[in-house]
Amino acid sequence: MRRTVGIGGIKKKKEAAERFRTAGREIEQTQIEHIRSSLSIFKSNLEAFAVKHKKDIRSNAVFRAQFSKMCQKIGVDPLASTKGFWAELLGVGDFYYELSIQIIEVCLATRVQNGGLLAITDLFTRLSSRRGPSAQLISLDDVRRAIDKVKVLGGGFGIVHINNSPMILSVPIEFNKDHTDVLEIAQQNQGHISISGLCSALSWPAVRSEKVIELMMENGIAWVDQCDLKQFEYWFPSLIVQ
């Protein structure tokens, strides 16, 4: 007959389990303290590096991008705010604030021409021209970071990718895959498309193509050419510019 575990045996098992839990917590706490210590040392070294290379971070766009990527790996974003230690040390918070305002101004100024959809390379060219030769140099990475700051303000600002080409959207429209599919087909067709062309290229029913086009027309992204009464052509100014 198998012997049952007595009260003493149960007590010993509970004590052993508690010792294991205590040991586990101690090991976990030791690991956490080690990680905290390592991060603290790394951040101190990062601050020392920033002080040493402050001039390069502020004036060299490529160096600034590499520095930012290095910081992101440990969850530090020294370029994100106009306040705090990093902003005071590097003076780049105001730089991104100023760049964000300029991006908004360019997008609003060109909206009547492109319907609120602007290639990021075109935006970069316009910004560089607007800032002038004496201003601090910028990079595409700077532009993307500034757009991320603008997105929190709402108003439809964001980045969409058309055939792997990043474009700035500055109209309050919820972009989905249907919209990007239409733009990709139009881009391949020199910036315009017809309903029948969409149906053929994407295997869509006419009602789906019409619904997507209508929404894009309402927001000024697409324009209609009614010269051919049998079949309207829909043009996308932002793609024609490219």
From TrEMBL:
GO biological process, one term: protein transport to vacuole involved in ubiquitin-dependent protein catabolic process via the multivesicular body sorting pathway
Gene Ontology terms: cellular component: ESCRT II complex
Top-level division of the source organism's lineage: Eukaryota
Keywords: Protein transport, Transport
Pfam families: EAP30
Keyword check for Transport: yes
Assembly: Component of the endosomal sorting complex required for transport II (ESCRT-II).
UniProt similarity note: Belongs to the SNF8 family.
Protein function: Component of the endosomal sorting complex required for transport II (ESCRT-II), which is required for multivesicular body (MVB) formation and sorting of endosomal cargo proteins into MVBs.
Protein name: Vacuolar-sorting protein SNF8
Organismal lineage: Eukaryota, Sar, Rhizaria, Endomyxa, Phytomyxea
